[in-house]
Design brief:
The protein is of the alpha+beta class. It contains four helices and eight strands; from the N terminus they run βαααββββββαβ. It starts with a strand and ends with a strand.
Length: about 170
């Protein structure tokens, strides 16, 4: 993968608890399931196999329309090491506007005051025009928004649930 982005936050909660929450992809992908300006007012719908994206080899995906154009991506969980690491990647070529194939995941590192959560994405630009041109312009902003929403939404959840989100440097 030729490009990458990551967001790191601190959460005053045990790594096991953070992993259990994020292991449910409905929580992790909530930013795609609700209408937002970055989604141009649209939202995606997730589908899961029997493993619900909680097992290595489990398949899941999303689909929807933005401005009437169908978008979708099929994914598979490739690494799952509770409570430390989970990685998934696209199967085949996704039908997206600004990024092509990608690998995403999260890493949780226990710390004295809780956990450090790193959400990351490694991606290629789309292969076909005009998506490739859109990717050159917007892919980095989209990747930053996506990892940022996943990490900050998790921190916000635990802050609301009684844990405290701690900004981390680096």
């Amino acid at each position: 993968m030729s490009r990458s982005n990551e967001t790191i936050v601190g959460i005053e909660c045990a790594a096991e608890t953070v992993f259990a929450y994020l292991d449910d992809h409905r929580h992790l992908g909530a930013h795609m399931s609700t209408s937002s300006w970055m989604m141009l007012g649209s939202k995606m719908h997730y589908e899961f196999d029997a493993g619900e994206a909680r097992l290595i080899g489990s398949k899941f995906g999303f689909h929807g329309k933005i401005l009437g154009i169908a978008l979708s991506a099929e994914q598979v969980v490739t690494i799952r090491t509770p409570p430390k690491l989970k990685v998934w990647e696209t199967i085949g070529a996704p039908s997206l506007w600004v990024i092509g194939r990608y690998r995403m995941g999260f890493e949780i590192v226990p710390e004295a005051r809780g956990s450090r959560l790193r959400v990351f994405i490694e991606y290629d630009l789309p292969e076909a025009e005009p998506s490739r041109w859109l990717g050159l312009i917007f892919a980095n902003a989209y990747a930053r928004w996506c990892t940022g929403r996943m990490a900050k939404d998790a921190a916000r959840y635990f802050a609301t649930a009684g844990a405290q989100a701690v900004p981390l440097k680096g």
